[in-house]
Amino acid sequence: MRNEITISELAQLMNVSVHQIRYFEDKGLLLPAYISGNQYRMYSMEQIYQLAHILLLRKLGLPVQAVKACMTDFGPDEIRQMLQTSLENTQAEILRLQQLQLFIGKVLQEHRDFGQEMEAYRVKWREAVNLRRWFMLSPQTELAARQFAGKAGPELNLFEADIHYVFEGEGPAVLCTEATEEAGLLLPAGEYLCFQFLAAGEDELEQRMEQFSAYAADRTLHRTGPLVLIEKSYLSLFSQDRLHYELLQRIGTV
Fold this sequence. Notes:
Blueprint: E1 5-6, H1 7-14, H2 18-26, E2 34-35, E3 41-43, H3 45-59, H4 64-73, H5 76-117, E4 121-126, E5 129-137, H6 145-148, E6 163-167, E7 173-179, E8 184-187, E9 190-199, H7 202-218, E10 222-231, E11 243-252
Antiparallel strand pairs: 1-3, 2-3, 4-9, 5-7, 5-8, 6-7, 6-10, 9-11, 10-11
Helix pairs in contact: 3-4
Keywords: DNA-binding, Repressor, Transcription, Transcription regulation
GO molecular function, one term: DNA binding
Protein name: MerR family transcriptional regulator
């Protein structure tokens, strides 16, 4: 009874394809124990362990040439450092995926909320929000690509964040994004009149803002602090021709 196994048996044992084993052979990583008289490639326990090591190193992300060098030249210290580096890279990737999971959940939840609240005025309690100022946008000036150049940084994924247009009196709007710490502009906690809608251009935005002011005036709501227009550009995945906005302003007693 022979102790070696064929290439198809090895492939089945290690849950890989015969083609993959042949590829490792072509690259000089894994050679059969011998080739039988009928030209079958035969593999022993030594080749099983070799293939297990190759698959592990490939799982760690090493290219084939690095796998070959690792198996022939690396000592224990180099292997340990390689595994440590792979662990750190894996942890960073897990963090990236967790952040992506949170963002996807946020988009889905906000899309559900937007559908329920669109075209309806609501008074809602909002927690305090810190905003970081970007730049001023003069009245009657449309936002242009040049104004964004150099403004974003590695800490901000542009258009994955809510963009806040803050209107203080009759002056220009201030473009802001949310900050995790005090960053120059605070929207305090309190009750806010809110209105969510879709718009396709500056004219429609101005009409919506006038409607918002008229609604508050008709109901003698005392508004305080700046008028804030929030652009939720990521929600426009659901409507390519229009952007999603929320208007809000704090209200209180006279």
